[in-house]
């Protein structure tokens, strides 16, 4: 699939404001500072569609981008950033959980994971929660340009071993680098086949 049009539609902070036009939605979620904005820009081929912030945890709303006038890329707030208050963190959690469990048009949730890091407890907890809730997932390892091929292979193996403790089979796995512009086409093909 080629992205020929990508338009920011709206930011919402309440589930009651979700679009009701029935277009398929593909959500993007992950820890703050995992590279969600860079990932969105990689997928859409636009440098500034999603604003890359120097301040992690800044996205506090659900942002909708309409792609090719046929489906939405949905940017969810980052989770687990220490510099926002516990009350705000719970709010982010509630907004994410409400969206993921209430959206009728959610086809897949791309869970972004930093290729440089071993499995983080908050990521594993989120993946486990989403799996139990029956939310369709794909795992996306970001920043692959920051590690060697052998380091990346080890990270993927460690994640696989960790997830197979609870999962019978793994969700789809993708590896991306917004710097080298890799992985985006595979994810767009996956979206096109959904």
Give the strand tally.
7
Order of helix and strand elements from N to C terminus: EEHEEHEHEHEH
Structural class: alpha/beta
Low-confidence stretches: 53-57, 82-92
Could you tell me the strand content as a percent range? Answer: 15-25%
| Lateral arrangement of strands in the main beta sheet | 1-3-4-2-5-6-7
Write the layout of secondary structure elements.
Blueprint: E1 6-12, E2 25-30, H1 36-44, E3 62-67, E4 71-75, H2 86-102, E5 106-114, H3 121-132, E6 137-142, H4 149-163, E7 173-175, H5 184-193
Parallel strand pairs: 2-4, 2-5, 5-6, 6-7
Antiparallel strand pairs: 1-3, 3-4
Helix pairs in contact: 1-5
Characterization of this structure:
This protein has 194 residues and is an alpha/beta fold. The chain has a single domain, classed as P-loop containing nucleotide triphosphate hydrolases (Rossmann fold). 32% of the residues lie in helices and 22% in strands. The chain has a 7-stranded mixed beta sheet, with helices on both faces.
Overview features:
194 residues; alpha/beta; Rossmann fold; seven-stranded mixed beta sheet; 32% helix
Short description:
By secondary structure, this protein is an alpha/beta fold.
């Amino acid at each position: 699939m080629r992205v020929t049009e990508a338009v920011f539609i709206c930011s919402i902070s309440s589930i009651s404001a979700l679009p009701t036009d029935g277009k398929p939605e593909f959500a993007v979620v992950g820890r703050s500072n995992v590279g969600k904005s860079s990932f969105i820009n990689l997928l859409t081929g636009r440098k500034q569609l999603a604003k890359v912030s120097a301040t992690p945890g800044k996205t506090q709303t659900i942002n909708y981008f309409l792609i090719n006038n046929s489906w939405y890329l949905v940017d969810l707030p980052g989770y687990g950033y220490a510099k926002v208050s516990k009350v705000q963190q719970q709010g982010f959690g509630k907004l994410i959980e409400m969206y993921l469990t209430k959206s009728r048009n959610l086809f897949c949730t791309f869970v972004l994971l930093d290729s440089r890091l071993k499995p983080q407890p908050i990521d594993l907890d989120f993946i486990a929660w989403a799996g139990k809730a029956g939310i369709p997932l794909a795992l996306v390892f970001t920043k692959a340009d920051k590690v060697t091929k052998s380091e990346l292979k080890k990270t993927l193996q460690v994640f696989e071993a960790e997830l197979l403790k609870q999962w019978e089979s793994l969700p789809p796995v993708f590896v991306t680098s917004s710097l080298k512009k890799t992985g985006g086409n595979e994810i767009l093909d996956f979206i096109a086949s959904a």
